Amino acid sequence: MSRWTVNRLVRLAARSASGQFLLRVARDLGNLQLVDRGMTLAAHVFTSILPLLIVAGAIRSRLDPGSGPILAEHMGLDAATADILEKSLPGGVQELRATGVIGAVLLIIAATSFARALERSLHTIWGTPTISIKFAWRWLAAVVCVIVGLGFILATRIFVRGDGPVSVVAFFAEVILWTAVWWLTSWIVINRLVGLRQLLPGALLAGIGFALAGLVARVVLPPLLADSATRFGVLGMAFTYIGWLLVLAFILLVGAAVGRVIYLTYMRRAPR
Question: Cys-Cys link to 81, which of 94, 142, 226, 247 (CB 3.0-4.6 A)?
Answer without folding.
Answer: 226
